[in-house]
Amino acid sequence: MTATATPTERPPYIWALGTFVVVMILYIITLAPTTAFWDTSEYIAAAKVLGIPHPPGNPLFTLMAHVWGLIPMVSDYAMRINLFAAATSAGGAAFWFLVAERWTRAILPSRGPRIAAAFAGILASAAAWTVWNQSTVNEKVYTISLLSLALTVWCVVRWADEPVGQRRDRWLVAAIYLLALTSTNHMMGVLAAPVIGIYVMMTDWRVIMRPRVIAAAALAVVVGLSINYVYLPIRAGQYPPINEGEPAGFFSKALSDVLGRVQYGKPPVTERMADFPAQLAMYWQYWSWQWGRDLGGFSRVATALFTFLGLSGLVALFRRDKRAGISAAALLFTLTLLLIYYLNFRYGFSYRPGDGGITQDMREVRERDYFFIASFAFAGVLFAAAFAAIIRGVGDWLGPRATDRNRWLAGTPVLLLALVPIIGNRHTATRAHETLARDFAIDILESVEPYGILITAGDNDTFPLWFAQEVLGVRRDVTLANLSLMNTEWHLRQIRRRPQEAFNPATAAAIWRPGTDQAGQPLGVAPPPGGWTMPTTPAFSLSTDSLSALPEIAAIPGQGMNVTDSLQITFGGQYLMRSDIATILLIRDNLGIRPIFFSWSDGAYPDNTLGLGPYLVTHGLVRKLMPTPVQLGGSIVNSPTLGPMDVERTRALLFGVYHPEAAARPRTRGWVDMPSASILSLYGIVYGGFAPMLLEMGDTTRAVQAEAVAEGVERALRLRP
User: Fold this and answer.
1) Which among 88, 339, 395, 540 could bridge 147 via Cys, Cβ 3.0 to 4.6 Å?
2) How far, in Å, CA of 118 to CA of 110, rounded?
3) Same domain, 561 and 602
4) In 162-210, which ranges are continuous DSSP H helix?
């Protein structure tokens, strides 16, 4: 055990590896077994097919995850990519450990307690609610950013400790290369740039005058950025199944728009989407979730404790190592205040100011805590500094009254505080056993007749379907049309371009196999003899150029229009969006050729916007568009909650195809992500609405089963973390 610490002391790489292993074990224990809602399915599917997810395209993620997915470490592909998120996040923790250990050398000279303090601090931040939750499923690209940030900072810290010379400057070039490279994953990684500048200016500013280093750095930037300008246009031009923005062409406007995120149409930062004090308050709300979200009233104590530790650690770094303190303060500033100002979010989904008055359209569609994940992870470095300062303080207080070894060990019990986030987040941060997104995707796809068109609403009812089709190979014969994305030109072109795949009855649900009716499970509409006929025409009859020319908004052509002799659309507003026009075209071009279904996740869209209510029949989680007004009788019965329903088809789906156990399973803290609760609630609505109908039909057993599913969903939605 050393009495002093020097910059040339060998970095504790073995202990960093140990940090990686411990954090990785935590994430593996709580790992999601499959996909999840929001962007998880989109990114897993993009990795599988080497596609292009939503802007800015994230080519670094796609390439890394695709290669990782080729390693047969587990049989389930989604779990492999979830392990990728866990590994990159745990890798980030390992490098933050190295940074923390190096920065605390001036605070705590004793190596053993210092390593323990660094480990404890990083373990606490690895168990921060958002960091933990995002590391157990590949929902976004941010775990790569965590790794990139930590590795970039470590490279520049290591550069400063090396002897002057070309060998040392390779660390600096590596940091600059990583900075450029990580921008092709997400711009979050670029937030390490101030640390590079501070270290250069406070260590050896003359390095910027050395031509050979400058040339190497410039080349590193060009190589790092090249992925954006090589992968995206080439792969987009090959038209993969997931090709958002379709940025084909090396100098195309489409590529520029994807990289510039034009699709989102955000205003300049000077035009605030919520007032800045409220945006600061929203960050504080997310910060308060991190350190003990499951602890009830004690969570406030945990928040206060770790806030104090973070600020104390920052002060300790300033007092003992100015360069480290300034770097830490700069990084904290960019990861919080600067990022809050730049992102310019609307009011948070669950943000509730005292005066109220915030309407739903003024809010974000989901919680945005994940955008600040880097600040929660970096906080572990500050915790480590605080722990080191406490241990040092106790040791200094004991002085000669204790042996050198004992006085440094006396303060180490404070490190047990690192367990608070693990204990306090263990229920809601875990993703273990959650399969609803995958099962919902299978359920809704299998609700659709062969070669059907399924019209969905947004991310959570569409991305899992992409995953099911492209990764699991489920019902690839179904054509998916997303109402939100049909407002873009590229989605319309991709629907038009997508080849019609053959329906495979051997891999589909049993109810779609010829002869099912004869086997004793009536469907209301029997499969035709020999199966269904595959359409030979594309879903849109218009050319891709004509689809691209559709207006973004248009005045309605009168009060209604006849699509066929028997089906009339009645408009519910004064204007039509591009997606409304596209929906009408899908109906016109496919009625009688492909069965058309609306997901119940569309809500009342087909009723209110297009007046199609009289033509819709509920089939479980979807509604089928009929060519003529629906007539009650036979298996078509009116449901008080779901309208005209094909009871035999619905019964076959609910009790022979669907996965109600995924929706109704017990959850200790209920459904955590309330913005996605609408998908879960669909099961409660459908099963709960069908239960009294089953009682009327005398099917008491299934009525009880349906009611149990509805009660399980209600219980999950009632509990709040």
Assistant:
1) 88
2) 12
3) yes
4) 166-182, 193-203
